[in-house]
Amino acid sequence: MPIATVNPANGETLKTYEAMGTEEIERRLQLAEATFRTYRATSFVDRGRLLLQAANLLEEDQQDVARMMTTEMGKPIKQARAEVAKCAKAMRWYADHAEELLADEEPAESDVKDSGASRVRVRYRPLGPVLAVMPWNFPLWQVVRFAAPALMAGNVGLLKHASNVPQTALYIEDLFHRAGYPEGCFQTLLIGSGQVDEVLRDERVRAATLTGSEPAGRAVASTAGEMIKKTVLELGGSDPYVVMPSADVDRAARIAVTARVQNTGQSCIAAKRFIVHTDVYDAFAERFVEGMKALVVGDPMQEGTDVGPLSSEKGRADLEELVDDARRSGAEVLCGGHQLRRPELPGWYYAPTVLAGITREMRIHREEAFGPVATLYRAGDLDEAVLIANDSLFGLSSNVWTRDEAEVDRFVRDLEAGSVFVNGMTASHPAFPFGGVKRSGFGRELSGHGIREFCNITTVWHGA
What we know:
alpha/beta; globular; seven-stranded mixed beta sheet
């Protein structure tokens, strides 16, 4: 895939970039290693000051950065601005909390004495240069939620961003440079996917984090396993959205629309499978379909747009194949189910779609639909709802709508997912751990769990 900015709203190629050669990659790896030796010894106060300055600059750049992201990958402009604001918030949160999250831990006094020590501490030390392989769908947030904790922990970052968002990738490097970070603290590698393996195998790269597809995750995990390097993987998702009879059905249906089409449905944590108890199925389906039909599809630069184009022509074709397969296998199309080819929409648009009558044999039941397509399931009771929800290779997050606390306890106990959101839609927050199980990956981002993922957890034992 060429490294280029191609506007998905019209298919126009705006900028192209040459991939970095071997010499430039080597220069940047040397710089990362050298910078880490000194940056690792900086104080939390100094690191926090730098990160707060980056947050300030990002807020000043909000309009321009939002337009750049929308141009590169098509998200509605109002959502792009919200992404920028969320990134600045995460930077401030880690600047304020990192020292506390990484403070030395003191084991119980009885255990210290039992070990024969006079004192024992557990200290969190940085690992070194960390390679981040990041996706295009949240081109700023995905990077910042790695970079903010990694830099506050004393690590340095190497970013291999998706090849369709090169301007955003270069902007992030420049942002940290303008904030005053030492040269080499955070560098963008403009390289193709075929060059990732070589970089990951380099001994100077100590760990890796990847957000992206399952095949990409397998490739990185395989190499990292061979090289014995720590990895965090956040892969695909096909999150269930369960609605029980005690729920506020009107609110559940209204939020379901947002939960499905945020970022034009191109989100791993978007709700995708809507599992509704039979007692409220018809009422929910009617309201949900009405909401999906009412969405404004159009130019992502327009303030009133709810759903923009898919990020690429291939992405739209893949989504269309899933819908066509379901239709051929008997699924009912309640709305949408087709490309939008109006003259005023020359880009890669797809109509918001709701499918019912889904069976296990359909590809869309097993695979992730990365676009504004929702599947509806009817469940006879809680047990069936759980069975349908867990009948997936993925386990990223989940959404449950019920006012019954006993049902909440059952769902929290039984749903195979990294998160359970009750009476609301899944969203990430810097203070809460984020990640999945099964083929959605392993490890956690954000919160204290995330910042410690790329630390050397060191036991310090003092003799009596």
